[in-house]
Amino acid sequence: MPEIATRDGYGTGLLKVGKNPNIVALDADLSDSTKSQEFGKAYPERFFNVGIAEQDMISISAGLAASGKIVFASSFSIFSERAFEHFRNTVARPKLNVKLCGSHAGFKTGEDGSSAQCIEDFAVYRSLPNVAVISPADAVETEKAVEFLASYKGPSYMRTTRAKVPVIFDSNYKFELGRGVVLKKGKDAVVFATGPLVHEALKAAEELDKDGIKIYVVNIHTIKPIDESLVIKLARETKAVISAEDHNVIGGLGSAIAEVLSKNSPTQMEMVGVKDTFGESGTPEELYEKYGLTSKHIINAVKSAIRRKSK
Amino acid sequence: MDTKALENKAREHRIEIIQMIYDAQSGHPGGSLSAIDILTALYGYKMKFNPKKPDWEDRDRFVYSKGHACPALYTVLADHGYFSREEFKKFRKLGGMLQGHADRKWTPGVEFSAGSLGQGLGFAIGIALAGRLDKKDYKVYCMLGDGECEEGAVWESAMAAPNFRLKNLIAILDYNKVQQTGKVKDIMNLEPIEDKWKSFGWRTIVIDGHSMKEIVSALDAAVKDGPTIIIANTKKGKGVSFMELNEKFHGKAPNAEEYKKAMEELNA
């Protein structure tokens, strides 16, 4: 499998949709990192580098959107949070057409250390009414999500990652907001994974196959609105649910699934994710190993979930 | 409207502002009274807009960043026919269109969902950039409060507008000298405020924000080249003696006795 970072998918997606003269893009001087720079080179008159000023970026984005523009704004996910209240009050509340992209999220950020390793963006953005929250698994899905967002009306937050991840989807892939994607069918347990953990979950499924354990692997690319019916259906079918995300176990995908299940079909869960701790410098692989985000950790969680249901 | 008519209109608006806040027993009289002369002139003299088509693409935009002082904006918008004065009675009430802070989702004619300071100027920059991209000749006016200038985000926007060479953007500072808990100069002195904006690359015009003549000529001068900021020296609570420069009336409604006295002073 070739490996491409999801932020590169953002760059190519933005470049593609950029043909639409109504699309504008903004960045807070990180465009070579977020990859919005390709759009900036192709359409300089519609690209605004606001300097290192995330709050201003969000307010300006809102004004452009209120004037009919389709606005893509990007920064590191962590710095987008600096403008969180701007996004809440000036974008989300009036439901303006601003698509925020936070790159360099999660422990995949690696060497930059804990200041940049945003592990709470799902939690904060999904708590905002009107805002769709998207977390693509690979570069193809990211590109397709950008194409989708260009025609979607309303505010959104999408997270991308810095490090390369294996490409899972081919160019025929269609992105549907709020629809989980079953990548592998099973019967003993279901893993709902998002972002780079989708690949880890697929690896875990292969290993478990060898032991005769068959699991569902579902790519949840939309954290909000979450695919309630699929979550309920597969939880009822397997009675063993595992969430997997490069995000704090508080407030993210695991919490979103637990909210759905506790209301509709209470099911014991295992949550693979960051265990409410800040990170440190290291390679993404080292961090995934140390903080429990690898296929091995998913395998352990699956086995534990299966043991618990037989009790 | 000529200057005399504008002055008269502003006096009527002051009465409506006091009435609206008294009826609601909640709201921000001080900043409404300091801003009302300028708002009256903007809508009555300078801006082009169409209340029958609030979304008219070529309209001039007014971004009211100090949205807590919305009663002033509501009186002006109602006067120009965006909605009925009957709505004043439902100001800050459940189900009413006049929210406690001006909000574009609720009220026709309101461009900006305010309530959190430091975000209007950036929003106005966005509209100005869109206007330039679309080759429109509309102007974008943005009123800021003085206490608001303590927000760092204001200065991000102050830096950006001249960098983007926005000629269609006019900021107006309602420099009413008082914020929620006291005098601006005691809490976080802004001086030398004109030098600050100048050094960020803005053209500045300093006026008496309660002189209709000076307001009108500043608005005429401002649209020639930009970005320009009109620094309007005003008085918080202007027009009601006991509210003037009195932080107690930043966000408090008058009681029955105060209401009566205010109305007498305004010749209601």
What's the topology here?
The complex is a heterodimer of chains A (311) and B (268).
Chain A lengths: L2 E3 H12 L5 E5 L3 H4 L2 H6 L4 E3 L4 H13 L3 E7 H4 L3 H9 L5 E6 L17 H6 L5 E3 L4 H13 L4 E4 L4 E3 L14 E4 L4 E5 L3 H14 L4 E5 L2 E3 L3 H11 L2 E8 L4 H12 L4 E6 L9 H7 L4 H16 L1
Helix pairs in contact in A: 1-8, 4-6, 9-13, 10-11
Chain B lengths: L2 H22 L4 H18 L14 E4 L5 H10 L40 H14 L6 E6 L6 H12 L5 E7 L2 E2 L2 E2 H5 L4 H7 L3 E6 L3 H11 L5 E6 L22 H10 L3
Parallel strand pairs in B: 1-2, 2-3, 3-7, 6-7
Antiparallel strand pairs in B: 4-5
Helix pairs in contact in B: 1-2, 1-3, 1-9, 2-3, 2-8, 4-5
Q: What share of the residues of chain B lie within helices?
A: 40-55%
**Portion in beta strands of chain A:** 15-25%
CATH superfamily of the largest domain in chain A: Thiamin diphosphate (ThDP)-binding fold, Pyr/PP domains
Gyration radius of chain A (Cα, Å) is: 19 Å
Oligomer classification: heterodimer
Q: Provide the helix percentage of chain A.
A: 40-55%
Task: Identify the notable features of this structure and list them briefly.
heterodimer; A: 311 residues; alpha/beta; Rossmann fold; 2 domains; seven-stranded mixed β-sheet; five-stranded mixed β-sheet; 13 helices; B: 268 residues; five-stranded parallel β-sheet; two-stranded antiparallel ribbon; 7 strands; 41% helix
Structure characterization notes:
The complex is a heterodimer of chains A (311) and B (268). With 311 residues, chain A is an alpha/beta fold. Chain A folds into 2 domains: 3-166, Thiamin diphosphate (ThDP)-binding fold, Pyr/PP domains (Rossmann fold, 3-Layer(aba) Sandwich); 181-310, 3-Layer(aba) Sandwich (Rossmann fold), CATH 3.40.50.920. Chain A contains 13 helices and 14 strands. Chain A has a 7-stranded mixed sheet with strand order 3-2-4-5-7-6-12. Chain A has a 5-stranded mixed sheet with strand order 9-11-10-13-14, with helices on both faces. In chain A, β10, α9 (197-210) and β11 form a beta-alpha-beta unit. The mean pLDDT of chain A is 97. By secondary structure, chain B is α/β, with parallel strands linked by helices. Chain B has a single domain, classed as Thiamin diphosphate (ThDP)-binding fold, Pyr/PP domains (Rossmann fold, 3-Layer(aba) Sandwich). Chain B is built from 9 helices and 7 strands. In chain B, the strands form 2 sheets. Chain B has a 5-stranded parallel sheet with strand order 1-2-3-7-6, with helices on both faces. In chain B, α1 packs antiparallel against α2 (29-46) and α2 (29-46) runs parallel beside α3 (70-79). Chain B is globular. Chain B starts with a helix and ends with a helix. The chains are: A alpha/beta (311), B alpha/beta (268).
